[in-house]
Design brief:
Order of helices and strands: HHHHHH
Structural class: mainly alpha
Number of strands: 0
Oligomer: single chain
Number of helices: 6
Length: about 200
């Protein structure tokens, strides 16, 4: 019984693969509509997690600081450490947010989970480019993604042309891509489990 679900066109697993291949041929490919809703999920979760992280940081700072002078000295001494911690927190937030966004897109599209994740990431890049162009033409106040911590907003004033700016931009671009691709594959795998249950039911297992 254990060998029935491994491979071969006559096994439940093999029949499922045949059915999925036929469905994918007709309904597969990148679904930019699903990816858009995945991106909305990602950016919404980024805002929530960023606000939560900021609130935790403020709470920790308020509980550990003494006078204003002591707080200033402590901030100067720990500036490098705080920068590293902030970068790690930002990377974690972006990974979780875009993993969830990719998962939503993969669940909605059913097929090609990795491609759906890439499409979620592309939506973020496209929106960032459009807003950057709008900001360059009409004023920097229209580059609203700069107000969302960690989103791949494209600065129009050259502020990213520093070592820390380039590192931050790399985090904001690469981490969401990895998270979205993994999330998209996870969302797609849910449907493969559902397909397998249907095939097993037809086979009387």
């Amino acid at each position: 019984m254990a060998t029935e679900n491994t491979s071969g066109a006559r096994t439940p697993r093999g029949r499922r693969d045949d059915v999925v291949a036929a469905e994918k041929e007709r309904f597969g490919g990148i679904k930019f509509g699903s990816a858009f809703f995945g991106w909305l999920t990602a950016i919404g979760l980024t805002v929530i997690l960023s606000a939560l992280a900021a609130a935790i940081g403020v709470g920790i700072g308020a509980s550990t600081s003494g006078t204003a002078g002591e707080a200033a000295n402590q901030a100067q001494e720990n500036a490098q450490t705080l920068g590293i911690v902030s970068g790690i927190v930002l990377a974690v937030i972006l990974f979780i947010a875009y993993y969830c966004g990719g998962y939503v897109a993969g669940r909605m599209a059913r097929f090609d989970g990795a491609k759906q994740g890439i499409a979620v990431w592309l939506w973020g890049i496209i929106v960032a480019i459009v807003l950057a162009i709008l900001a360059a033409v009409a004023g920097n106040q229209f580059n609203v993604l700069e107000q969302v911590q960690g989103q791949p907003a494209i600065p129009v004033d050259g502020s990213a042309l520093t070592a820390s700016g380039l590192i931050g931009l790399a985090i904001a671009i690469l981490v969401p891509l990895i998270g979205a691709v993994l999330g998209g594959k996870a969302g797609m795998r849910f449907h493969r489990r559902v397909d397998q249950v249907g095939i097993d039911h037809q086979a009387g297992l």
